[in-house]
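Workshop exercise sheet. Pairs work together: one partner reads the sequence aloud, the other fills in the structure field after running the prediction. Swap roles for the next sheet.
Pair: D.N. / O.F.
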Amino acid sequence: MSAVQPVGVGLIGAGRIGGSHAHLLATRVPGARLVAVADPRPGAADALAGPLGATGYAEVADLLADPGVDAVVVTATTEAHANLVEQAARAGKGVFCEKPAGLSLAEVDRGIAATAAAGVAFQVGFNRRFDPGFAAARAAVDTGRVGTPYLLRSLTRDPGLPDYGRVPAWAVFLLTLIHDFDTLLWLNPGAEPVSVYAVADALVAPEFKDAGLLDTAVVTVRFDNGAIATAEANFSASYGYDVRGEVFGSTGRLEIGGQPRQALAVSDATGRHTDTPRGDVELFGEAYAGELAEFVAAVREGREPAVTGHDARRALAIALSCIASVRSGGPVDPRVAAATVDGRVR
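Structure field:
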């Protein structure tokens, strides 16, 4: 591929995050050209693709057969991720897949094998690595600013969900905390998890607990370098979208996130007030653009992306171990437990 020729990207899935990614690819990602959008819902692909100068398809096969598509971005429903990664790889397309890349280790392994066999890039959407604050924290860890890591923490609090009845079982681990698990692995480089203990409940929407919804969770992860990490999530932060991280080590501490929407604080008779981000696209807009730019660059340069299928597998292994831990009521060894769990099973 020519160094000046844009990478033609096809997007599969015209939902909320698909719409955001489509606009970024069309307007903010250097070297990318949004060529096509596929979605089986009547009119969905055309509605998103048309205003961005792309072609809409109702069938994924038609998008993959489009000669202008060099790579695909998968933002379809979670259950379809693994199959779409394999289909795109067989078509010779580089693949960016939103997390998780599968709902079992076997599914992710098939995606890794398929993309490797095809010799195409395979990147998974762990956007926090591309956020300036989180990236600066990793750089500080790499240069030894905090010494030996003792304690790590990552949290995600979503500002509510539109329909708790449509949240799939285990989403708190597989869709939300999986970002935190990747963050903890990334901020503790070279270490492997040896124990996972998860506690979760339906505190926000208890009426949906019998249907499998868990909306609040705390996870403890022990690593083989001695570090202990915690991750927590909740689906009802009334004050906004709250994502933070911390690394505490032998010589210092790093704090990540928790910044207001703008550098303004108002103090009055009711106290001190700051405006906070209200959603993931707002908080991580720069990070979303950065991860897509990395993917496009990897496709053009014929190299491995900064975030790989193996990274996806490691984070998923912790998420699946959380399910095993909740079921057993105690800590589990992720090196054993993860292989026994399928995220589709309640």
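Discussion prompt: The mean pLDDT is 96. What would you look at next?
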